[in-house]
Amino acid sequence: MKIIDVKDYQEMSKKAAEYIIEKVRHSKNLNLGLATGGTPVGTYTNLIEDHKQNHTSYQGVKTFNLDEYVGLSGDNHNSYRFYMNDQLFNHIDIEKSNTHIPRGDAKDMQKECEDYENLLAEHGGIDLQILGIGSNGHIGFNEPGTSFDSNTHIVDLAPSTREANARYFDSLEEVPTRAVTMGIATIMKSKEILLLISGENKKEALSNLLHGEVDERFPASVLRNHPCVTIIADEAAIADEKVRS
Ligand code: GLP
């Protein structure tokens, strides 16, 4: 794993955007895996700025998001479809039909999982997957204990994850209890992974990732087995690492 350490959230967002823009410009048909949460918001803002100023085009890009809440439709403000449209897709020249997010309101969620996995395979998989990390080591919505062999599936969200995400909802009760997420095996099939880590509350997660065992109890640890992972981490998240060295 390659680590790029940066000063703060702003610098992480700028570096991550530059990394993505480089790929968008140099590959004709890029399959880009996207994440939600607070971490990539600044990255998406930088992509939009660049699109406006430098006219980087997303017409050859297809996107595949990691996850979605079960029970929320795309027009619900808390759905990840709404988030993606609002934070990125509505502001760049990507065809909406080329943006893919599992549906949280499908009638048959099991079938939705299988369809999403097939969709990824039909498109030849993800070239570059952007990831954030939960403080308990979750990636996508793969909570501790998820099998490293898992494909796209339905998960029960950990109480800590629901609490962490309650900030976007009116109350904790409104946070869905289940989600659909790419599995660990799905994520690991990506040709390249860019993991963004910012803030003091992610310090322990970063330390576990770098020094802990590769173990299903800490889902992100699987990334140590991936041949092409780049981490961009800011000083607040990386502080303990500096003390170590
Ligand atoms: C969320 C998302 C993840 C995200 C993580 C961290 O629940 N499902 O994809 O990476 O938790 O979120 P944040 O960036 O807000 O800290």
UniProtKB/TrEMBL annotation:
Enzyme class: hydrolase
The protein's name in its UniProt record: Glucosamine-6-phosphate deaminase
Glucosamine/galactosamine-6-phosphate isomerase domain: residues covered: 9-224
CDD domains in the cross-refs: GlcN6P_deaminase
GO terms for MF: glucosamine-6-phosphate deaminase activity
Entry annotated with the keyword Ligase: no
SUPFAM superfamilies per UniProt: NagB/RpiA/CoA transferase-like (SSF100950)
Family: Belongs to the glucosamine/galactosamine-6-phosphate isomerase family. NagB subfamily.
Active site residues according to the UniProt entry: 67, 136, 138, 143
Protein's organism: Bacillus seohaeanensis
Catalytic activities: alpha-D-glucosamine 6-phosphate + H2O = beta-D-fructose 6-phosphate + NH4(+)
